[in-house]
Amino acid sequence: MNISIATVFNELYEPFLRTSLVKRAQERDLVSIETLNLFDCVKPKERIDAPTFGPGAGMLIKPVVVERAVETLEKQHGPAFKIFFSPQGKKLTQSLLKQIAHKATQKGHLMLLPARYAGMDARVEKEEADEIKAVGDLVLMGGDIPAMMLLEGMLRLIPGVVGKEESVREDSFSGPFVDYPEFTEPVIWHGMTVPEVIRSGNHKAIDEWRYNEAAKKSVLHHFYWLKSSAMTTDQKKKAARYIPPHYVVLMHGDVLVGPEKRVGTTSIMSIDIHDIARSSCTYGVKQFFLSTPLKDQQAIANHFLSFWQKKAGAEYNKQRHDAIKEVRIASSLDEVIAAITKKEGKEPVLLATSARQTGDEKALTYYDQERVWEHQKPVLILLGTGHGLSPAVIERCDYVLGPIQGFTDFNHLSVRSAAAAILDRWLGINER
Ligand SMILES: C[S@@+](CC[C@H](N)C(=O)[O-])C[C@H]1O[C@@H](n2cnc3c(N)ncnc32)[C@H](O)[C@@H]1O
Q1: 90 strand-pairing partners
Q2: Shortest CA distance to 232 belongs to which of 176, 182, 275, 189?
Q3: Which atom of ligand 1 is nearest to the CA of 114?
Q4: d(CA 167, CA 160)
Q5: How far apart are the first and last CA of the chain?
Q6: CA distance 383 to 289
Q7: What are phi and psi of 322, to 5 degrees?
């Protein structure tokens, strides 16, 4: 495969192309890489760049210069698969690198066109770029480091460049799990010992240990990667083992009620029980509690549950029985916390939910699982009825999850709809 790079600073590539595996790939004739300086594509006294139209300072590489670079390089190596670089491009990922390696190999010529200054004229990107790539939500001075990143990432996917091909196949971000932890000599360093199992020589045990560690690391530190990945049933089960136990309580006491939003109680609704129980089951919540201090409300709820949790309910509708069998009635939040503590041996971390934004350090987004799970405790998600949880309950919680909202001013989701969205965002799989 021919790789050509049209750049303003080709001197940057000299040491890069002469080093390590990038050098070896060329020595083994797996690829040939050359750079073309864009200054060689301008006539004497012609400028490579020009100011942008409209207010706002900035210089762009002129489209005609890029056009000439493309013509020159395609004349030498044939039609190219052309990649431009921009922070607004599609972010490089391991799977995109694989696609690029495949397309470039098929075409036989990969051309990289990193920009400088304020970037490229929009028309030349439209006309010439097969793809525009970014390397993160950040802005660099130029596209040369992104081009080198793409090269390093892509070259190691070309057979023969990296010694052990299976190690490439199992790399982080090639599947749902990131790589397992690795260790080398000495066995004890700073008081930390390399786990016995991986020194045991027992390959089956080592594989199992690695698989478990990779799953654990992915859940605890790369949950967003994991939940957006395609998983086998086994991988899903393995990951689920490392998600801390979650519980949900629907608060009917200690909530704001009435037009004056005083602290009071609300009535239990069977539709909430059905729907939140089904959501809880879907997302792996261990138990769903209903909390009300009112004895008559508890009696109504118990009557309802006694049908669904017993044989008659199971015979009438097995799925509803399965969902509702883990619903429990409690008279207060304290009772719920005590029940979870008894079961898990640890008090749960309390996550309030609210339709209003909280600005303090307790505020949590749906990207903050790591912050909560690092406590290594069970998690209790509190849902409010009426106008929401009372300030005293929110005060008691360790964190407050932000509101579920759309691009509108309407902010009146039913608690069962909000519960489904909350659980989906916090625990749900959303394959990319
Ligand atoms: C200063 S940047 C231009 C930024 C542009 N004004 C914007 O905000 O999108 C100049 C060039 O550096 C490269 N570059 C900068 N950040 C990048 C990133 N995150 N990914 C890929 N290329 C990047 C691109 O080639 C870009 O055209």
Answers
A1: 133
A2: 176
A3: 25
A4: 13
A5: 30
A6: 10
A7: -60, -40
- The tens digit of pLDDT for each residue in 57-93 reads 799 999 999 999 999 999 999 999 999 999 999 999 9
Dihedral pair phi/psi, residue 49, rounded to 5°:
-125, 170
In tens, the pLDDT along 341-399 reads 999 999 999 999 998 887 788 999 999 999 999 999 999 999 999 999 999 999 999 99
Q: Residue 36 above 80 pLDDT?
A: yes
Q: How far apart are CA 359 and CA 89, in angstroms?
A: 32
Examine residue 181 and say whether the peptide bond preceding it is cis (omega within 30 degrees of 0): no
Measured by CA distance, the residue closest to atom 9 of ligand 1 is: 87
Radius of gyration over every alpha carbon of the chain, rounded to an integer in angstroms: 29
Helix (H) or strand (E) holding 67: helix 63-77
Which of left, alpha, beta for 117 (phi over 0: left; psi -120 to 50: alpha)? left
d(CA 422, CA 428): 9
Residue nearest to atom 21 of ligand 1 (CA): 134
| 55 CA → ligand 1 middle, Å | 19
The residue nearest atom 12 of ligand 1, judged by CA position, is: 142
